[in-house]
């Protein structure tokens, strides 16, 4: 399948697949979307709520699961976010992008940390790697359907290709597994706000909020698992 590098609305790059009319990030701004959906509405929100409950992230690391490692943008922004928070990051990806795509996308230059971007992509699959004192990553090459965790994660970044292209990734069984993998009080964020996706999340047990989306999208979803 043909793949092209696209410059998005905020100047950051993504991968575009013209045959599917689909891309890894929003054409309106890859960086803006990642920051809004996953960092601000996901990570920052969860940390603020947890700190209000007196959680000590040095003693109790934040466990994040990413559905769709893709270009590594979400992982990189998370690793850069706050050195005072210890993060253990698990990223799932069935089809890793090619080394030449990593080089051209060049988020290391965009986010002014070439070493970190290279580390995230060069680390071995299916092996935990300590990137810094506060950030550990394990990239797992598998499909979403094979995930089976039990109350392990605090936060899920759900960043699969959209339901128009891959509806099988947005079904209730997928969200059943995501719900099971979250600790009580855990949160899932995604750029998608489709009605059927929201209903599938609710059927899996989530409480779902419709929130303002990133540039180019009216809404996004944040789902939570009750304490």
TrEMBL record:
Specify the protein name.
SAM-dependent methyltransferase
Q: What organism is this sequence from?
A: Nonlabens dokdonensis
Q: Source organism's superkingdom?
A: Bacteria
Q: What is one process in the GO biological process aspect for this record? A: methylation
Task: Enumerate the InterPro entries for this protein.
Answer: MnmC-like_methylTransf (IPR008471), SAM-dependent_MTases_sf (IPR029063), tRNA_MNMC2 (IPR047785)
Residue ranges of every copy of the MnmC-like methyltransferase domain listed in the record: 137-225
User: Which keywords are on file for this protein?
Assistant: Methyltransferase, Transferase
Q: Which Pfam families match?
A: Methyltransf_30
Q: Name one GO molecular function term.
A: tRNA (5-methylaminomethyl-2-thiouridylate)(34)-methyltransferase activity
